[in-house]
């Protein structure tokens, strides 16, 4: 078998040498659309995170298995793969702990003013201080704040449980209507936005959730509220959010944007109140531990396919 990994750079420093167990293994850091066909022309199995595998590629190669090194399969033409008899295997559940950890890291970065106090100490200001502490920027406890989770899937549920452990009053809104919980009360989106001090988004992006949080919804947030998006870019309208960050005391934490990598004209670039938001470059899924687990599961997917 020949196995080709098209975008190994998205996996970081994970050792991929074990894939040589299955035959010839070729890896590329990144692959452009124009390079796909040449690199896959004699491949049996492809590993891809974000590189698109569409009808054109399937018709002009002899692929037998497409391994997505992620959970989402929106970069694969799933229906056409089925008609061609090409197996598609993704990986689910590998990054739950990683995402949940990043949610609370970002939340505490904002509530505890970590950027300000870290900069203050490292600039030498503490050396000059006449007192032992600095309380010039208020920090706040999340106990017993009202914490709203939008999307109570596997990740959203774990976020809710940890928020409860910190003493928060947790409620949720299910965007699909399918996730029902006996642990936490379900509320309408309107009620969640109006009453919660912290809002954490963990739903999928689809026609129903595109721009789910727009100007009208953001206006319902309480003064001092924190809104976080760890679902998908496009769920929160970025223009509307960037505007309200300068108009009201609203805070935001984002790990996903509608266009990634971030574009030069992204509206967050022009926000004046830069201490009111934190943006990380889609890293919540990518702890070292999660990436090791991911590739172990991809390896197993190939094993299972070859045994079938």
From TrEMBL:
Q: What superkingdom heads the lineage?
A: Bacteria
Residue intervals of the D-isomer specific 2-hydroxyacid dehydrogenase catalytic domain = 19-307
Task: Provide this UniProt record's keywords sorted from A to Z.
Answer: NAD, Oxidoreductase
> What's the Enzyme Commission number for this chain?
1.-.-.-, 1.1.1.29
The record places domain D-isomer specific 2-hydroxyacid dehydrogenase NAD-binding at: 105-284
GO MF terms on file? hydroxypyruvate reductase (NADH) activity; NAD binding
| PROSITE patterns membership | D_2_HYDROXYACID_DH_3
Enzyme's top EC category = oxidoreductase
Origin organism lineage = Bacteria, Pseudomonadati, Campylobacterota, Epsilonproteobacteria, Campylobacterales
InterPro entries, per the entry: D-iso_2-hydroxyacid_DH_PdxB, D-isomer_2_OHA_DH_cat_dom, D-isomer_DH_CS, D-isomer_DH_NAD-bd, NAD(P)-bd_dom_sf
Q: Does the keyword NAD apply?
A: yes
Q: Which family does it belong to?
A: Belongs to the D-isomer specific 2-hydroxyacid dehydrogenase family.
Q: Which NCBIfam families match?
A: PRK08410.1 (NF006263)
Q: What is this protein called?
A: Glycerate dehydrogenase
């Amino acid at each position: 078998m020949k196995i080709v990994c098209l975008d190994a750079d998205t996996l970081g420093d994970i050792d991929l040498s074990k894939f040589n167990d299955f035959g010839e293994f070729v890896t590329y850091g990144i692959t452009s659309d124009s390079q796909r066909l040449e690199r896959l022309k004699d491949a049996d199995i492809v590993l891809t995170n974000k590189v698109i595998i569409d009808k054109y590629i399937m018709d002009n190669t002899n692929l037998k298995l497409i391994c997505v090194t992620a959970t989402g399969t929106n970069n694969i033409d799933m229906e056409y793969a089925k008609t061609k008899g090409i197996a598609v295997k993704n990986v689910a559940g590998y990054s739950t702990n990683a995402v949940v950890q990043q949610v609370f890291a970002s939340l505490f970065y904002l509530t505890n003013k970590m950027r300000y106090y870290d900069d203050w100490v490292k600039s030498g200001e503490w050396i000059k201080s006449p007192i032992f502490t600095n309380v010039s920027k208020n920090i706040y406890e999340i106990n017993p704040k009202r914490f709203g989770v939008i999307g109570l899937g596997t990740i959203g549920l774990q976020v809710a449980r940890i928020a409860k452990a910190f003493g928060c009053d947790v409620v949720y809104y299910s965007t699909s209507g399918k996730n029902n919980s006996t642990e936490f009360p379900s509320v309408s989106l309107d009620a969640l936005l109006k009453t919660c001090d912290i809002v954490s988004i963990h739903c999928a992006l689809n026609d129903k959730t595109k721009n789910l949080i727009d100007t009208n919804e953001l206006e319902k947030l309480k003064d001092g509220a924190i809104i976080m998006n760890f679902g998908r870019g496009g769920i929160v309208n970025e223009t509307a959010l960037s505007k309200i960050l300068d108009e009201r005391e609203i805070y935001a934490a984002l790990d996903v944007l509608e266009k990634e990598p971030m574009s030069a004209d992204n509206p967050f670039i022009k926000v004046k109140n830069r201490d009111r938001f934190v943006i990380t470059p889609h890293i919540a899924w990518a702890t070292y531990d999660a990436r090791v687990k991911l590739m172990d599961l991809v390896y197993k997917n190939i094993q299972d396919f070859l045994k079938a």
